[in-house]
Amino acid sequence: MLLNVIDRGPDAPDTDASSLPPVVFLHGLFGRARNFGFFQRRLAQSRRTLAMDLRNHGDSPHGPMSYPIMAEDVFETLTHLNVENAIVVGHSMGGKTAMMLALHHPDRVAKLLVADIAPGEGGFSQGHDLAARLAALPFPDHLTRASADALLAEVISEPEVRNLMMQNIELGDHPHWTIGIHEIAAAMPDIVGWPSIPTGMTYDGPTLFVAGERSHYIQPENYPEMKRLFPHYRLTTIKNAGHWVHAEQPAQFQAVLSGFIES
Predict the structure, then answer these.
(1) Is residue 186 part of a domain?
(2) Residues 77, 140: one domain?
(3) DSSP code for 108
(4) Is 158 in the same domain as 225?
(5) Are residues 50 and 139 part of one domain?
(6) Nearest to 122 by CA among 28, 214, 240, 216
(7) Does the reported pTM lie above 0.85?
(8) Mean pLDDT for back-to-back runs of 10 residues, the chain (263 residues)
(9) C-alpha span between 139 and 98 (Å, rounded)
(10) DSSP category for residue 22
(11) Does 184 fall in a domain?
């Protein structure tokens, strides 16, 4: 499946920029490519950047979901764009997709940055049933932003999560979900889970895990599997940040991201 991509680079042709591996951004559950716009715009001043809508999200097609399937979507899209290898940055669900891409196609990943997720079970604090509850919400004939917020509040208590979900609803007359909400709901066990990785399948390239200080998605019990699959990994923690490390502390995340890319 070819994914929708926001493709940004230097405004003027730059020979040096064209020789650098592009940076690929993969968003988390219920997100979309433009969520990484702050970082993409800055990096695009000096190199090509590609922010992708994963399947069932944003403007990408819908279909069954699993991490191997989503990683193949990214691989197919990179191939279509003639990208031989890239620095891949993924948050949460996008981080698991990025890890799977690196494990299955290590030659296509120059570096790997995984934001606040581990290769294992977990990574969605709202519980398995949220997507199903969202899919079952009865939409009225007309929705404003305020009435949509009130509707979402029936199943989501956190205002910041409701704001994230709002980007996935077509407001106005005949409102509807723009994402594959039913496909996402059906795939939730796979999204929260992590497939078994065979012994010997590793990604030996530079790998950085970025944890939020207040988040619990990367724990010491994850370290052995991180080491097994990504033997050269490093772990850094962003202070005063929860799971949404890039949104809660953008300046710190930008510094970590730029340092990793340039190192």
Answers:
(1) no
(2) no
(3) G
(4) no
(5) no
(6) 216
(7) yes
(8) 96 71 96 94 95 97 97 98 97 97 98 97 70 91 94 88 90 94 94 93 97 94 97 97 92 96 92
(9) 34
(10) P
(11) no
